[in-house]
Amino acid sequence: MKPIRHLNHLIQSFCQLPGRVRWSVGLLMMAAYSWLFYSAFVAPTGFRWRAIYGDPDYPKGYPIHGIDISHHQGPINWHRLRHALVAHDPLRFVFVKATEGDSHLDTRFRENFDNAKEAGFIRGAYHFWSNQSPPRRQAYYFTAMVQLEPGDLPPVLDVE
C-alpha cells in the first residue's frame, strides 16, 4: 500500500507543476523512449536498409546480378540492358512482373517476358501480392497467366 501511496503523491506533485515544465518532462521522456526503442529494435537490423539509402557497394564474390522490371519502367532498351554492368559484372537474369492480385496482368508482361529471353537473359516472373483478394485466387490467376518454359527461373512472390 505504501508504494502506491508514494506513486500517487508523485503523480499529484507532477500535475501541480507549471504547464511548461510538464511539457518539457514529457518531451524528455518521449525522447528517452524513442532512443531506447531505436537502440533495441532499429539499430541492430539497420544494415538491411542500407541499400535504400544509396549504399553503392555490392557483395564481393557474387558475380551474378539481376533486376526486376514492370510496366513502371516503361519501354526497355534491351540491347543497352544486355550490355549493362553491375560492379563490373553483367546482368544475368531478369524477373518480370506478371500479375497483381487476382485479376491484374502487368500491361507490359508479355512484351518484357518475351524480350528478356530474346535478349539472352535468364528470365523469371513474379506476382505482386495484394491483401484485397484471397491467396488461392491470386495463385490460380498467376499460374493461368504465366507459362514458364524450361530454363526459366522459379516464380517469385513480391510482398511489400
UniProtKB/TrEMBL annotation:
| GO biological process per UniProt | carbohydrate catabolic process; cell wall macromolecule catabolic process; peptidoglycan catabolic process
RNA-binding listed as a keyword: no
Which molecular-function annotation in GO is an example for this chain? lysozyme activity
Q: Which UniProt keywords apply?
A: Glycosidase, Hydrolase, Membrane, Transmembrane, Transmembrane helix
Q: What is this protein called?
A: Glycosyl hydrolase, family 25
> What sections of the protein cross the membrane?
21-41
Give the originating organism: gut metagenome
Family recorded in the similarity comment: Belongs to the glycosyl hydrolase 25 family.
Among SUPFAM superfamilies, the record links this protein to: (Trans)glycosidases
State whether keyword Membrane applies: yes
Q: Which PANTHER family match?
A: LYSOZYME (PTHR34135:SF2)
The protein's matches in InterPro entries, at most eight in alphabetical order, are given as: GH (IPR017853), Glyco_hydro_25 (IPR002053), Glyco_hydro_fam25_subgr (IPR018077)
Pfam families given in the database record: Glyco_hydro_25
